[in-house]
Amino acid sequence: MTQDWAAVDGYIAEKLLGADPALDAALAANAAAGLPAIDVSAAQGRMLELLARMAGARSILEVGTLGGYSTICLARALPEDGHLATLELEPHHAEVARANLARAGLGDRCDVRVGPAAETLAAMIAAGEGPFDFVFIDADKPGNVAYLDAALKLTRPGSVILVDNVVRGGGVLETDSADPSVIGTRALFDAVAAHPRLDASAIQTVGDKGWDGFLLAVVKR
């Protein structure tokens, strides 16, 4: 079955996405630099771009840069005067991401910030940054609730918040799990469900990245 999932992703990419030298180069650079191969798939990357475009995003916040693959996809949705801030813990990853973004011709609209995301977000809130039109959270899962809380302080009514990896191969159902990523993901669902400012749903996905899913929320007020 998992072979079928990957084959369908290949079919989608062939039929709907076409060749993408910038993204291919980013993946090659990431591998050469020893970054983990945990980027979104090609189909998911295009989905990110389309969702940001549908939201009319002029400003985007990404929590979790890695090598900038998803950052490239999101930045492509921006108008020429748009802006994207992306937060990365590891300086080496950030260096690779900056090079990938520059190669893709998007370095001028992307600001890669290095450090613990919770600290960077707190500084952004204190500085009065935002509001951001679109937020993509794809970092350490134990931090999900803190990132969501910060995102709500950096957005406006109508802003979109997207969180990746929320199914975890079905692990989200494990009420007694000791896995910090599962615990953090379950806490995210509880926080979103209880929050009066969010309308949300989640969907399961299968493909190159196995069985997972994403949570999509819109800020109400």
What are the main properties of this structure?
globular; 221 residues; seven-stranded mixed sheet; single chain; alpha/beta; 8 helices
What does the model show?
Helices cover 43% and strands 24% of the residues. It has helices at residues 2-17, 21-32, 42-54, 69-75, 91-103, 117-126, 144-153, 180-194; strands at 59-63, 83-88, 110-114, 132-137, 155-164, 198-207, 210-219.
Summarize the structure.
The protein is an alpha/beta fold. Helix content is 43%, strand content 24%.
If strands are numbered along the chain, what order do they take across the biggest sheet? 3-2-1-4-5-7-6
**Which class best fits the helix and strand makeup?**
alpha/beta
Poorly predicted ranges (pLDDT <50, ≥5 residues)? none
Helix percentage: 40-55%
Q: Say what oligomer this is.
A: single chain
Q: Gyration radius, to the nearest Å?
A: 17 Å
Beta fraction:
15-25%
Count of helical regions = 8
Biggest sheet statistics:
7 strands, mixed
